[in-house]
Sugar ABC transporter permease
Amino acid sequence: MPYARKQTPIRRNKNTAVKAYLFLAPSLLGVAAFVLIPFLDVIRRSFYEAMGGRFVGLKNYQTVLTNEAFHQAAFNTGRFLLTCIPLLLLLSFLVALCIQGLCGSGEWFKTIFLTPMAIPVASIVLLWQLMFDEKGYLNQITAVFHMSPVDWMNGATAFYVLVFSYLWKNIGYDIILWLAGLNGISPALYEAARVDGAGRWQCFRYITLPELRPTVFLIGVLSFVNSFKVFREAYLIAGDYPDSSIYMLQHLFNNWFVSLDIQKMSAAAVLTALVITTFLLVVQHRNERNAED
């Protein structure tokens, strides 16, 4: 029989790494072709005029930062994030705690809360129009109590309709993530704490909350990313120029794209990406520090 050369651990690890990169290559090429290279082109365009291609330095950034529509859109987007994400984290966590305490009925509640994720956006928009239109079902219900009708989608209340839409759509997914984190905590920790005389609140404070730190980080990041998808509902309900309370950055980018203000859109996209990346890096750094502690 021919002599079979035995592979060293270093050679074996090298072969494993090569195979891993070969499997990753299609995804990496796709990300490079459809995300990285186009974004690098956006960065380049942010320093040039759209017509003529003349280099203008930071002029486009100055134009964006002094634009009132950008201020309004950035404020509304920030307000939406600061309102929705804490509410979603809190509500989904409370519901997850309640579901965990149920035995047979828990699976039914999971299905109920996950159902909104299976409903197409167009159907959700139709549902909201039926509910929140000036002649919709909600105003018909309030009319029974002799309350004047409210145009929910064309006023300050439009912001709260958008918040409700985001919470209703995403709470089920976050509940599943919370339940995964709660079920991942070892029961032995609670048993040892009870032997030492710890009550329910002490177990929750000193065991449950610390053990859920990785879950909080994951849910927070995913909720942050999903919050930008609510633009679809706002756009389909209210169009290009909705009420000022729900005029988001995505509306601004879309309108600049339609009017061919590519240089302003590119500069605003770079600024937005810079803020989002910085925020995520800071959150990740703090999460890693907490994990080390």
Observations:
- The chain has one domain: 70-292.
- The radius of gyration is 25 Å.
- Residues 213 and 291 are 8 Å apart (CA to CA).
